[in-house]
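Thread: Modeling a multi-component assembly for a lab meeting

Hi all, long-time lurker, first post. My supervisor asked me to bring a structural picture of a complex we are working on to next week's group meeting, and I have zero experience with this. I have the sequence lines for every component (339 residues in total). Could someone generate the structure of the whole assembly? Inputs are pasted exactly as I received them:
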Amino acid sequence: MRVAAERRFGDSALLVEPVEPASDRFLIDRARAGDERAFRELVERYEPRVAATVVGMLGAGDEAEDVGQETFIRLYRSLDRFRGDSSLGTYLTRIAINLSLTALKRRKRRTSRFVSRDERERELPETSVDPRGDLERKETALEVRAAVEALAPDHRAVVVLRMIDGLSTRETAEILGIPAGTVMSRLARAMDRLERALKEPNDE
Amino acid sequence: MNDRELLILYRDGELPEAQRARVEERLRTDSELRASLERLESVAAALGLGAATSFEPFFAARVVARLRQSRQVSPVEAMYESLRWMFARLAVACVVLILSLGVYSALGGGYTRSLVDAMLGLPEATLQTALTLGG
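Re: Modeling a multi-component assembly
Sure thing. I ran the full set together rather than chain by chain. Output:
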């Protein structure tokens, strides 16, 4: 959906080509009023950001897809309460990271009951998110995925938000509700572990 | 703040100018710190390789479909809501009926019996009537 510019020539008004994408505010207002197309545009606009967060936390697959969908459904249900104190991207990232952490807790319970470590490792190839890349890139992506999955959920969240989503330390702290100092100490430890894991992946 | 934290902040441009200049000065002279920064860069680049930018195709369509589905009320939920509506009103009607009968009985039965007996419309119970019923 784009905002069409109206230009007047004499007495006639002409609708010319769209000139700029609709603002988030505009789309939110339309979605609140029940405009499904506006909501869909919001989903398309923020899919990359939510995907980076959710897939970064959970790996690609059905679980990530489900959490991604749920993130937007939660957004829709809270549109009336969304006052715009934070940007929509930050708001969505907060929902996505919280749902992902909940999914990880569920997964841990499930995994400890039913799935062995070997089975988890066999799932790794499905988590590839770089199908167009060459074999080496794909292998590196898988090694990174395995290394990230070996991190504790709170460390993983910091790595995803700070290093994959590219948020600042302050934004990361705000989203996770922890002090900036804690973000940095968790990040430093996580990067240290990732560095060691990626250096010697076979030893992990 | 340890060197690792310092390098992360340096890499992401989050250090104040003076601190940044000090880190750059150290990087010029400290080969170990330089190597540490290079390792950090390589891990950051590797993380970038694994970053997803989308879900499976037609994600937005699936979200909208799920939203529509969640807005539709299932037959079981509809029946549950109907029964809840009906029983809530039935309960109110019963309370009103009981209270009305109670008031009617209390007003029609005089003041010789207790209020509870009167409200429930029970016959006056005396020792004599009790013996009669028992015997």
